[in-house]
Design goal:
157 residues, flat
Protein backbone atom coordinates (compact mmCIF):
# COMPACT_ATOMS: atom_id res chain seq x y z
CA UNK A 1 0.00 0.00 0.00
CA UNK A 2 1.60 3.31 -1.00
CA UNK A 3 2.17 5.88 1.69
CA UNK A 4 1.41 9.60 1.48
CA UNK A 5 5.15 10.23 1.17
CA UNK A 6 5.38 8.38 -2.16
CA UNK A 7 3.11 10.58 -4.25
CA UNK A 8 3.97 10.31 -7.94
CA UNK A 9 2.96 13.93 -8.65
CA UNK A 10 5.50 16.31 -7.13
CA UNK A 11 4.38 19.29 -5.09
CA UNK A 12 4.87 22.68 -6.73
CA UNK A 13 8.12 24.35 -5.67
CA UNK A 14 7.87 25.88 -2.22
CA UNK A 15 4.66 24.03 -1.26
CA UNK A 16 4.93 21.44 1.47
CA UNK A 17 3.26 18.10 0.68
CA UNK A 18 1.09 18.41 3.84
CA UNK A 19 -0.16 21.83 2.72
CA UNK A 20 -0.95 20.44 -0.71
CA UNK A 21 -2.75 17.50 0.87
CA UNK A 22 -4.92 19.84 2.94
CA UNK A 23 -5.87 21.85 -0.16
CA UNK A 24 -6.72 18.73 -2.13
CA UNK A 25 -8.76 17.26 0.74
CA UNK A 26 -10.68 20.54 1.06
CA UNK A 27 -11.48 20.49 -2.64
CA UNK A 28 -12.50 16.84 -2.42
CA UNK A 29 -14.86 17.65 0.47
CA UNK A 30 -16.41 20.55 -1.46
CA UNK A 31 -16.97 18.48 -4.59
CA UNK A 32 -18.35 15.54 -2.62
CA UNK A 33 -20.81 17.81 -0.83
CA UNK A 34 -22.00 19.16 -4.18
CA UNK A 35 -22.41 15.63 -5.54
CA UNK A 36 -24.36 14.61 -2.44
CA UNK A 37 -26.69 17.60 -2.83
CA UNK A 38 -27.25 16.73 -6.49
CA UNK A 39 -28.06 13.13 -5.52
CA UNK A 40 -30.52 14.53 -2.97
CA UNK A 41 -32.30 16.52 -5.66
CA UNK A 42 -32.39 13.47 -7.95
CA UNK A 43 -34.00 11.49 -5.11
CA UNK A 44 -36.63 14.23 -4.73
CA UNK A 45 -37.40 14.04 -8.46
CA UNK A 46 -37.65 10.24 -8.30
CA UNK A 47 -40.05 10.51 -5.35
CA UNK A 48 -42.22 13.00 -7.25
CA UNK A 49 -42.29 10.87 -10.41
CA UNK A 50 -43.30 7.84 -8.38
CA UNK A 51 -45.79 9.61 -6.11
CA UNK A 52 -47.59 11.31 -9.01
CA UNK A 53 -47.50 8.11 -11.09
CA UNK A 54 -45.90 9.87 -14.05
CA UNK A 55 -43.95 6.86 -15.25
CA UNK A 56 -46.89 5.05 -16.82
CA UNK A 57 -46.63 7.18 -19.94
CA UNK A 58 -42.96 6.26 -20.43
CA UNK A 59 -43.38 2.53 -20.81
CA UNK A 60 -40.64 1.70 -18.31
CA UNK A 61 -41.16 -1.41 -16.24
CA UNK A 62 -40.08 0.04 -12.90
CA UNK A 63 -38.99 3.23 -11.21
CA UNK A 64 -35.47 1.82 -10.81
CA UNK A 65 -35.35 1.04 -14.54
CA UNK A 66 -36.31 4.64 -15.32
CA UNK A 67 -33.67 6.01 -12.95
CA UNK A 68 -30.96 3.84 -14.49
CA UNK A 69 -32.09 4.82 -18.00
CA UNK A 70 -32.36 8.56 -17.43
CA UNK A 71 -29.31 9.05 -15.20
CA UNK A 72 -26.92 6.45 -16.55
CA UNK A 73 -26.30 4.92 -13.12
CA UNK A 74 -26.04 1.20 -12.47
CA UNK A 75 -29.23 -0.73 -11.72
CA UNK A 76 -28.01 -1.16 -8.12
CA UNK A 77 -27.45 2.58 -7.68
CA UNK A 78 -30.89 3.21 -9.19
CA UNK A 79 -32.42 0.81 -6.64
CA UNK A 80 -30.71 2.76 -3.87
CA UNK A 81 -32.17 6.04 -5.15
CA UNK A 82 -35.63 4.48 -5.32
CA UNK A 83 -35.29 3.10 -1.78
CA UNK A 84 -34.33 6.53 -0.43
CA UNK A 85 -37.17 8.17 -2.36
CA UNK A 86 -39.62 5.58 -1.09
CA UNK A 87 -38.74 6.13 2.56
CA UNK A 88 -38.00 9.86 2.44
CA UNK A 89 -41.01 10.68 4.63
CA UNK A 90 -39.88 8.12 7.23
CA UNK A 91 -36.34 9.54 7.23
CA UNK A 92 -36.73 13.32 6.80
CA UNK A 93 -33.55 14.18 8.72
CA UNK A 94 -31.42 11.75 6.74
CA UNK A 95 -32.79 12.88 3.38
CA UNK A 96 -32.42 16.54 4.36
CA UNK A 97 -28.76 15.88 5.21
CA UNK A 98 -28.37 14.28 1.77
CA UNK A 99 -29.91 17.34 0.05
CA UNK A 100 -27.65 19.60 2.10
CA UNK A 101 -24.60 17.63 0.99
CA UNK A 102 -23.77 16.36 4.48
CA UNK A 103 -24.48 12.66 3.87
CA UNK A 104 -23.87 10.55 0.79
CA UNK A 105 -26.40 8.58 -1.21
CA UNK A 106 -24.62 5.41 -0.11
CA UNK A 107 -25.02 6.32 3.57
CA UNK A 108 -28.69 7.28 3.29
CA UNK A 109 -29.31 4.32 0.99
CA UNK A 110 -28.15 1.82 3.60
CA UNK A 111 -30.42 3.50 6.12
CA UNK A 112 -33.42 3.58 3.76
CA UNK A 113 -32.97 -0.02 2.69
CA UNK A 114 -32.46 -1.58 6.11
CA UNK A 115 -33.13 0.64 9.12
CA UNK A 116 -36.15 0.21 11.33
CA UNK A 117 -39.04 2.62 11.49
CA UNK A 118 -38.58 5.48 13.95
CA UNK A 119 -34.79 5.53 13.72
CA UNK A 120 -34.36 8.68 11.61
CA UNK A 121 -32.86 10.94 14.29
CA UNK A 122 -30.51 8.21 15.50
CA UNK A 123 -29.12 7.43 12.05
CA UNK A 124 -29.03 11.05 10.91
CA UNK A 125 -26.62 11.71 13.78
CA UNK A 126 -24.66 8.46 13.51
CA UNK A 127 -24.17 8.78 9.75
CA UNK A 128 -22.29 12.07 10.21
CA UNK A 129 -19.43 10.05 11.73
CA UNK A 130 -19.89 6.54 10.34
CA UNK A 131 -18.73 4.90 7.15
CA UNK A 132 -21.17 2.93 5.02
CA UNK A 133 -19.73 -0.29 6.42
CA UNK A 134 -20.19 0.94 10.00
CA UNK A 135 -23.79 1.91 9.23
CA UNK A 136 -24.48 -1.55 7.81
CA UNK A 137 -23.12 -3.11 10.99
CA UNK A 138 -25.12 -0.78 13.25
CA UNK A 139 -28.32 -1.50 11.35
CA UNK A 140 -27.69 -5.25 11.36
CA UNK A 141 -27.29 -5.09 15.17
CA UNK A 142 -30.37 -2.90 15.59
CA UNK A 143 -32.93 -4.56 17.85
CA UNK A 144 -35.96 -5.58 15.83
CA UNK A 145 -39.38 -5.50 17.33
CA UNK A 146 -41.21 -8.72 16.79
CA UNK A 147 -44.90 -8.43 16.05
CA UNK A 148 -47.11 -9.55 18.89
CA UNK A 149 -48.21 -13.14 18.42
CA UNK A 150 -51.88 -13.57 17.66
CA UNK A 151 -53.98 -14.17 20.77
CA UNK A 152 -54.49 -17.80 21.61
CA UNK A 153 -58.08 -18.89 21.58
CA UNK A 154 -59.44 -19.91 24.93
CA UNK A 155 -60.01 -23.63 25.22
CA UNK A 156 -63.62 -24.68 24.95
CA UNK A 157 -65.15 -26.00 28.15
Amino acid sequence: MPSAATCSIPSPPGVRPMDRLEVLFAELAELTGQRNAIDGRIVDIVAELDRDELLGITGVTSVAHMVAWKTGVSPRNAETMVAVAGRAQEFPLCTAALREGQLSLDQVGVIAERAGTGSDAHYAELAKYATVRQLRTAIRLEPRTEPDPPPRPEPER
